[in-house]
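Continuing the batch. This is chain 6 of the set; chains 1 through 5 are on the previous pages. Same settings as before, nothing changed between runs. Recording input and output for traceability.
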Amino acid sequence: MKIFYGLLLFPLLSHAAVDIAFLEMRNYKGEIIRLEPSGVFAHIAISYNGAWLHSHPHRGVEIISTENLETMGKVKEIVHLTEFPEITEAQVQTFLNKPYDPEFSWDGSRIYCAELIGKLLGIPPQSMTFKADYWRGRLQHLLVGGLGLSPDDIYKHLKNKRAKFCSTVF
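Output for chain 6:
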């Protein structure tokens, strides 16, 4: 319960201009979903006005509370990016209500969670391989080698490229 209240107030109390929440998700068997072979995170959201902006598989891009974000999975880490300004209403409106992209394409009118965060933070896409076990049997509609990002790609990029990287692990 203490973690829940900490997460609830986190976007409001943080001194960082932008917070990124990295979530661990589990399948129906309770196994961690790994989108990358050695991945940790399966979902990602960005702070906005005391709430979180993300792309939901059924509802698309939306603004939600911490409580609702936690229905997606367990927040494992929040990264504080002090060098990034808060995202603006104009930036949010560019993406808000866009449908979710189940094909993980970097282009087009649909958008997935890591694409949303990557575009907001200006992180360049990279070639996607879909080599993790999670993708076995799901590749028929995915563009292997196409450009994109996963939550783990964003985490690694921020950790390696940002001088002002600070995180809270839960």
